[in-house]
Design brief:
Shape: globular
Strand content: 15-25%
Order of helices and strands: HHHEEEHEHEEEH
CATH class: Alpha Beta
Number of domains: 1
Structural class: alpha/beta
Radius of gyration: 21 Å
CATH architecture: 3-Layer(aba) Sandwich
Number of helices: 6
Helix content: 25-40%
Distance between the termini: 74 Å
Strand order of the largest sheet: 2-1-5-4-3-6-7
Largest sheet: 7 strands, mixed
Low-confidence stretches: none
């Protein structure tokens, strides 16, 4: 113990601060909320680096089945078919998923850029209850539309991981499919969407 104290006294103030930060992070990992906070931060950094990409034409899928029942944040029913012919930004997520939480600020930025354009729709879909989703969104002060679903999504959206995000063209082509946290708020994604929107 005395060796530890001697070693501690020799450390610089900066080194001691780093030790305290490391210890705090280590302790926080023992608590679910701490793990979520750290995971969200790490994935926020990761999502600021990774850019979305357009799927090359030969391997693009076409969405043929738009029949998928959703429930919006007010508990009202909606159907994916209601948005056929629009650009669809579809994100599968959950409140307990650190990568999902990490990329959400970027999604909010993207939504803010296009929220007044009626040719694009944002669908952030979780299989959690409407109450759980609304509580999370309210706490984080996000304004993008969130939905709950209890039924299987169309086969074209099959994925074993969340977050998974799709961008569908007005013609039904799946132009983007990204698994994991991605930079949705950057200029690259804005350009992709502007190129998909009908030209006036």
């Amino acid at each position: 113990m005395s060796a530890f104290i001697k070693n501690w006294k020799k450390k610089s103030l900066f080194s001691k601060i780093l030790d305290f930060i490391f210890l705090a992070l280590l302790i926080s990992l023992f608590f679910p909320q701490g793990r979520m906070t750290i995971g969200g931060f790490v994935n926020r950094v990761k999502s600021s680096i990774i850019q979305p990409d357009i799927i090359k034409e030969p391997v693009r899928l076409n969405l043929t089945d738009y029949n998928w029942l959703l429930t919006n944040s007010n508990g009202q029913s909606a159907n994916l078919s209601d948005y056929k012919g629009k650009v669809i930004f579809l994100n599968f997520w959950a409140t307990w998923c650190p990568p999902c939480v990490g990329e959400m600020p970027g999604i909010q930025q993207l939504y803010d850029k296009f929220k007044d354009n009626d040719q694009i729709v944002f669908l952030l879909v979780s299989n959690e209850s409407v109450e759980t989703i609304n509580q999370f969104i309210s706490k984080k002060k996000y304004s993008f539309p969130v939905y709950s679903t209890r039924e299987q999504s169309p086969e074209a959206f099959s994925s074993n991981s969340i977050p998974t995000t799709f961008v569908i063209s007005p013609e039904g082509e799946i132009m983007v499919k990204e698994v994991g946290a991605v930079n949705w708020g950057g200029s690259k994604m804005e350009e992709i969407i502007r190129n998909l929107l009908p030209q006036k």
